[in-house]
From TrEMBL:
Coiled coil: none annotated. It is a multi-pass membrane protein. The chain crosses the membrane at residues 12-35, 55-74, 106-128, 140-159, 165-184, 215-239, 259-278, 285-306, 312-332, 372-391. This is Major Facilitator Superfamily protein. Pfam families: MFS_1. Residues 13-399 form the Major facilitator superfamily (MFS) profile domain. It comes from the Bacteria. The lineage of its organism: Bacteria, Pseudomonadati, Bacteroidota, Sphingobacteriia, Sphingobacteriales. The keyword Magnesium does not apply.
Length: 408
């Protein structure tokens, strides 16, 4: 009876973490969807749309980068639940305020603050679920969290279609505040509570840099996720500009593209999770995804005269390719001990998101000489090759016992 009760509590935890990530994704992606509409409303000229968009997106990514470190340390020092509550409160309030901005500078600052809040949700949720489930089932738990969570992008698209961009931000912030009520009754990780009583260093971010083997392990974890956000943040978000370069028959909608990409990511997350359980390997799944990214991205970037329908199909297929997001975060969590696990699982996805900044800078530097299409292909190929090399350097973590700590 007690075992059944515990099992139900675990699955309630999975549900709450999934809904948290659902709201997180909604608020994370809403700018990409309403970029053009909101910029037109606050008076940004057409010629500045791409560069100002990169500024605001990079501000959000910088917030994610900094927030990942802050929430990761809090998660390992004070508990995973503290992160789940604190992060959602911060980004919900920021998104509500975002609905009132009147200029691009304020827009960027608010997205930076929202980014700090958004940084905590996924890593803490994945860590909590991974530590609360048995090693032979935790892959299903993290799969559900990410698979359900990314559907928040679908809601973001429809809200932006039904209401104006300011209301879209209000809805995102309001959902986050409502979700706080559902968090009451969730429980802390048993592994965290156990290691909290041990005399070990907890949540010391700098421990990742004091040991060469541990540092390289961390870097390789980051590198396997590099292609994900370039596909979403550039190839899909800049669909209007890429479509013009491809001489598209119809204007390509970034909002629709994001929606179809996230449909693909949701399906990809479920497929990656199931495939990992079947193959008993997360590394093989990530390798398959890298191949899919290359195939579908190059197909997209070489589709001269592309129609809106073909673009949406390719956006969906690229989404399946980058749908190893949950597998990537799970791998990162499984590579490190309990006293650093939240730090790694929270910083890794946000450093990968933050890596969009140098990726877009390199891409932007290549555009004048190579053109938007060739520049996008070169950067995508390079990021994928880096990811494949990093993957080859990591040990398989499927069915790994997580009850251990990192020594100082």
């Amino acid at each position: 009876m007690e075992s059944n009760l515990q099992s139900k509590r675990v699955w309630v935890l999975v549900l709450v973490a999934s809904l948290g990530y659902f709201v997180d994704i909604y608020d994370l992606i809403i700018f990409s969807i309403v970029r053009v509409q909101s910029f037109q409303d606050i008076g940004i000229p057409e010629t500045d749309m791409r560069t100002r968009g990169e500024y605001v997106l990079n501000m959000q990514m910088a917030g994610l980068l900094i927030g990942g470190v802050i929430w990761g340390i809090i998660g390992d020092k004070f508990g995973r639940l503290k992160v789940l509550f604190g992060s959602i409160l911060l980004y919900s309030l920021a998104n509500i305020y975002n609905g009132f901005v009147q200029d691009v500078t304020t827009y960027g600052i608010v997205r930076f603050i929202a980014g700090i809040g958004l940084a905590g949700e996924l890593g803490a949720g994945i860590t909590l679920v991974s530590e609360s489930m048995s090693k032979n089932k935790r892959g299903y738990g993290t799969m559900i969290v990410a698979g359900v969570g990314v559907l928040g992008a679908i809601l973001a698209y429809f809200i932006s279609e039904w209401f104006d961009w300011r209301t879209a931000y209000f809805v995102g912030g309001g959902m986050g505040l409502l979700l706080l009520l559902l968090r009451v009754g969730t429980f802390e990780s048993g592994l965290f509570q156990k290691q909290a009583q041990q005399n070990v260093v907890k949540g010391n971010f700098w421990m990742l840099f004091t040991n060469k083997e541990r540092f390289l392990r961390y870097v390789y974890c980051l590198c396997i996720g590099l292609p994900i956000w370039f596909v979403v943040g550039v190839l899909v978000t800049q669909a209007p500009e890429i479509g013009k370069a491809l001489q598209s028959t119809d204007p390509l909608s970034a909002g629709k593209g994001v929606m179809f990409t996230y449909l693909g990511i949701s399906l990809g997350d479920f497929m990656a999770g199931v495939l990992a359980q079947w193959l008993k390997s997360r590394r093989k799944v990530v390798l398959i995804c890298q191949v899919l990214i290359l195939i579908f991205s190059i197909t997209y970037l070489t589709s001269t005269g592309i129609t809106e329908g073909k673009f949406l199909v390719l956006a969906f297929l690229m989404g399946i390719g980058v749908g190893y997001w949950a597998t990537f975060v799970t791998i990162a969590a499984e590579q490190f001990g309990t006293n650093l696990r939240a730090t790694v699982a929270t910083t890794a996805p946000n450093f990968v998101r933050g890596a969009l900044i140098p990726s877009t800078m390199i891409y932007g530097a290549l555009v004048p000489s190579m053109g938007i299409l060739n520049a996008a292909m070169v950067v995508t190929a390079c990021l994928t090759l880096i990811a494949v090399f990093a993957l080859s350097q990591l040990q398989e973590s499927f069915n790994k016992d997580l009850n251990y700590v990192e020594k100082d």
